[in-house]
Amino acid sequence: MKACLAAVLALTALVPTLKAAEPFRPKDPGFVVAELPGRAVRSRDSFARQLLLSRSDPQKATQLAAALLEQARVSAQPQLYGRAESVLAPWVARPTVPAALLTLEADVLQQRHEFGAAIGLLDRAIAQDPRAAHARLMRANVHIVTGEFDRARPDCTWLLGSGEQWAGSVCLAQVVGSTGQLERARVLLERLTADESAGPSVDVRAWTLAVRADLDMRAGALAEAQIALTRAVALAPTSDYVRLALADVLIARGYLTDAVNVLGAARPSVSALLRRAIALARAHDSQMQGSLAELRERLAVSAQRGERTHLREEARLALEFANDRRAALALARDNFAVQRETEDVRLLARAATDARDTAAIASLEAWIRRTHYEDVVVDRLLPGRESSSGATTWIRARRS
Predict the structure, then answer these.
(1) Which of 55, 214, 253, 304 has the fewest CB atoms within 10 Å, counting from its CB?
(2) What is the pTM of this model?
């Protein structure tokens, strides 16, 4: 799982706010970033005024775009990302752009899974301001999400050396945990999270626990992953990112009612609806049809807009419900070409083996050999890669 409000974070991407980047709190009582029922006209007028002011003042542009992005993540209103981009676009088009604005535009791009373009902007921002910790963490995270672990390592190391010890440690744990040193990474994060009260903020501690849980899952330690994510949800109860991760572990362990309950507090996103449908289907609950219908409607709307940000969910939907192996493999391949987090690697492994596609299997195995990526689920799915850990996988256990 990525540490990105990217995130997470989406992406995400979850990129925690470092101490060098305080959240924006508007001083003007008339400042509006989101529309509320009955106040749409006033909200639009206020935004238009703020947008006009932002055209000539980079600090106002930075504040307005940052506020819109923060509100977009909290409220799950995708239109707010569009508003943020309308603030940033005139600045990004200029030959010289302040580093802070480049970083914010990169945030918008990675939310749309335009990772290559996001990296280009972050490279420019860091070239201008080499001590931009937030930009470095975001760049490292994008490289981790796209499976370019060695390219993330220098920024993780820089964060450690700059005094951002916690963020740097988590960043580096993700890199070493994906390049042949999974157990070392688990030990590092186990020590880091041993103290319940330690950490720069509750959001950063929740992010750390989510990363630790991801490593635990890949090691087959589902009980430990569940404990870590339960702690993360307690720290950040409004974070859908950690709720969805906990739901995945609960589904994997067969705790289907618990998974549905955890998802009940999440916003009805595509990711949440998919997991709810899977949990209800495995529990033989007729409510599954409602979740599935809403999910497919959301995906249809997204497709009409020309969006390609739900490839992961489309691939998992095809595997779980459509019984179309070739379509599932095509989606999983397309998704893997964009992002390579735990779920993405597992989806491709499952789709390739279900379709008995030797070329897809060979391609994935070559990537694993090159990166030294470790995951007991993938090991059990791919021929000749049976893990010696004896852990039960969330895929084979459900198919048997």
Answers:
(1) 304
(2) 0.85
